[in-house]
């Protein structure tokens, strides 16, 4: 009985209130700010604690009056008095087709700058209208992270000075013109992480990225084509990238670009290129020759292969096999990658809506007359995900690699999921694979893993 009473006393004690204020503020930085404000009724100590929380998150819901939400955010920010505002996240969704609400973005951002904000995230989904982003941000010397999304329009002056900014994410942001993008990026001399998802309708045709300290760059476009018609004439945009410190590059959905120039990337570690086709120049692949790791999801029929380029640094190559005659691009890359150690092939996913079975099966594999240097002297690991034994060209490519990879230490194959009514085909698939491997002569001791089962051959 006495033990039960002691437990009740301990359980009834307010241990959270006894925590140091610094720790309480860290805890209050986790939930939405609307929830944090309600803690003011807990006790006398909590009454004003919410005013010192260093991280703020505001998010409107679909049922909320946007004008009232905007007013409440402004009122709270005026009452908020932290020594430093570490981050301010605001998300507004307005799907009202009839009205265009007044969003006090200028007030919010102005107060945040006065509070020496370090991270600012503005995510606006406003149906059929955009909000002009306040130019006062472009001279903020405390901002380290800036993320803008959707219904934001930026007219960037030439006097940008954001020396502390290291992370910049622009998702479907509208810019007045080409100079606005150029001014923003050039005004951030210490920028390290840049993400750009281009809007469907964008006035900026040629995107110029000149950033000497940039280490990570991701560019994505929503639509496959960036062709636009201006004055009755068809114009194609492009990309010019000059980033001598670039280490990680991701490019997705470039289609019918006039150019894609990566002028300077000598320390590139990894590049991921997918859904890129019909580029006016052939330098998009050739400019990646300093990369150590490459992931390619391209059609050899729609992309120009560079002449004379050698990938001396490339040790890891990942390729998707969804496109027609993908093996031609594979053999081209093997020929120009003399130090390749790891090769990973990823077949199509039947659940992928963009997959076209007729396209993938077109063409015919022809075994090359010469064996690439990397197969005979460097390749140690070979992986094939969703390997399809029913495709003749896949069996021929797999056999060719295993037969000529003299230093291969491990080959891993995983097949596509088998439906319950097709389980009886599993053993047949294994027999077919073993039959192919019986012709392997290059490696005396290749460790094979097939659907999780290890086999020494």
TrEMBL record:
InterPro entries: F-box-like_dom_sf (IPR036047), F-box_AtFBL13-like (IPR053781), F-box_dom (IPR001810), FBD (IPR006566), FBL13/AtMIF1-like (IPR050232), LRR_dom_sf (IPR032675), LRR_FXL15/At3g58940/PEG3-like (IPR055411). Residues 13-49 form the F-box domain. Residues 416-443 form a coiled coil. Keywords: Coiled coil. The keyword Glycoprotein does not apply. It comes from the Eukaryota. Pfam families: F-box, FBD, LRR_At5g56370. PROSITE patterns: FBOX. This is F-box/FBD/LRR-repeat protein At3g52680-like. It comes from Camelina sativa (False flax). The lineage of its organism: Eukaryota, Viridiplantae, Streptophyta, Embryophyta, Tracheophyta. The gene is LOC104715601.
